[in-house]
Design goal:
With 422 residues, the protein is of the alpha+beta class. It has a single domain, classed as Cytochrome p450 (Orthogonal Bundle). Helix content is 48%, strand content 11%. The chain contains 17 helices and eleven strands. It has helices at 11-17, 21-29, 48-54, 68-75, 85-99, 102-120, 123-126, 131-147, 156-168, 175-199, 210-216, 227-242, 244-257, 259-266, 270-283, 315-318, 363-379; strands at residues 6-9, 33-37, 40-45, 60-61, 129-130, 289-294, 298-300, 303-305, 310-314, 381-383, 405-410. The strands form three sheets. The chain has a six-stranded mixed β-sheet with strand order 1-2-3-9-6-4, sandwiched between helices. A three-stranded antiparallel β-sheet has the order 5-11-10. Helix 10 packs across helix 12 (227-242), helix 11 (210-216) packs antiparallel against helix 12 and helix 14 packs across helix 17 (363-379). It is globular and about 60 Å long. Residues 1-6 and 418-422 have low confidence and may be disordered.
């Protein structure tokens, strides 16, 4: 039974406590809770029923809910995440066309896998290397090839750094935030020029690529996207893909803490590789929560939610809820072997139906990439030199402090990949 629990403004508490803030707030309330965040009333919800409540547009909308500091860094202004109703579904069709296509996902995995092989071949001569940084560059190189975005080899590092900055700085008000804003501005201008050149006939976008499909997309009004909005949406293909670098670093962290998982991945069982990927997504901190605004005056389990107020869905807390997960703070890929997990239980990237709601349509691509990269990493011979592998839940987004440094790298002639059996 949820009881009313209202606190003063929690913005500083959120910034200081990070992932623990909303689960702690709800734990103190013995259920769901109301507070103020950024000067606005906010209601924090959690659990599968709350997921279904949150993703029902009769209850919660995104338009007007995404703070400008998030639009200016992570999502971009005018992007699909800020739309609702028919306009959202029309725009999201662009992403569903690509990200629910097994062939398109397989092409992405292949491009990133090729980039891994090209990069990892040089690691024995220059190790130690930082896994997070290397994974970000590898994924950026492969994702740009897949998306149909031309990037000179000399420019890959800068592109990867900007894409990482957009993710790394969205939830802070400090220097990381301003780096994220500058990075987004650079990459939006870069891709806006690409679409302007394509429309002027100066460049040809690869047929069927995300860039080509974005260029040919027609919105609800039947018109093509303005070049700037097209740039925002193409970044919404590439930027979340590069965010898989966070999961890649977590995978390296998991293999170090639980070495038996590395051996299991080396055995090449696709089912285990997928279970490992899902457990990395469940166990490690990624998105703390998602937010929207109440579409009307609502009541949730006796808690009043005024129209226009913020509604926050607790993702990290739900992924560690003992009512849903046996020993939730144990890393156990086996929990996903031979088990059917209800759609709204595992929510590292949000919940709901990706076809009709705001759930991330790229989850299948994320899992496929993480399966493949985890298997490739497990196949390497390497050691971990002394380093700080702490993962602070106060940092948004969290990642291993050292980035996971590996040394003494030896690359097998044929890296084992679990993706082929997916």
């Amino acid at each position: 039974m949820t009881r009313r629990f209202t606190l003063g403004d929690q913005t500083l508490a959120l910034l200081s406590r990070g992932y623990a803030w909303l689960p702690g707030l709800r734990r103190r309330a013995r259920g769901d809770a109301a507070a103020r965040v950024l000067g606005r009333r906010a209601t924090g919800l959690g659990g599968p029923e709350a997921v279904r409540f949150f993703y029902d547009e009769r209850h919660v909308l995104r338009d007007g809910a995404v703070p400008e500091l998030v639009q200016g860094t992570l999502f971009g202004k005018g992007g699909v995440q800020t739309l609702d109703g028919p306009a959202h579904r029309a725009r999201k069709a662009l992403f569903l066309t690509v990200l629910t296509d097994p062939d398109a996902i397989a092409r992405l995995v292949r491009h990133v896998g090729d980039a891994w092989d090209e990069t990892a071949a040089a690691w024995p001569g220059r190790s130690p290397v930082v896994l997070f940084d290397e994974a970000a560059e590898i994924i950026a190189r492969g994702a740009c090839r897949w998306a149909g975005v031309p990037v000179a080899e000399a420019g890959v590092k800068a592109v990867a750094a900007d894409l990482v900055a957009m993710v790394d700085g969205f939830a802070t008000l400090g220097p990381r935030h301003w780096r994220a804003r500058r990075a987004r501005g650079r990459r939006e201008r870069w891709l806006t020029r690409l679409f302007e050149d394509a429309r002027a006939g100066a460049v040809t976008l690869p047929a069927g690529s995300p860039a080509d499909l974005t260029e040919r997309h027609r919105d609800l009004d039947g018109r093509p996207l303005p070049p700037h909005v097209a740039a925002v949406e193409l970044l919404n293909f590439i930027r979340p893909t590069v965010a898989v670098a966070w999961f890649a670093a977590f995978a390296g962290h998991a293999m170090h803490r639980w070495p038996h998982t590395r051996q299991e991945l080396r055995n090449g069982d696709p089912a285990y590789a997928e279970a490992f990927a899902q457990e990395v997504r469940r166990f490690y901190p990624f998105a703390p929560f998602v937010g929207g605004r109440a579409a009307a005056d609502l009541t949730w389990r006796g808690l009043r939610i005024p129209e226009g107020s913020l509604v926050l869905l607790d993702l990290y807390g739900q992924n560690h809820d003992a009512a849903l997960w046996r020993e939730p703070y144990a890393f156990e890929p086996g929990r996903f072997l031979g088990a059917t997990v209800p759609r709204d239980h595992l929510v590292p990237q949000g919940g709901g139906d990706p076809a009709t709601g705001h759930r991330c349509p790229g989850e299948a691509a994320t899992v496929a990439l993480l399966k493949d990269l985890s298997a490739r990493l497990a196949a390497l011979e390497y050691t971990l030199p002394p380093q700080d592998l702490t993962i602070s839940l106060r940092r948004l987004p969290a990642r291993p402090r050292s980035g996971v440094v590996i040394g003494g790298v030896r690359v097998p002639a044929r890296p084992r990949s679990a993706a082929a059996g997916a």
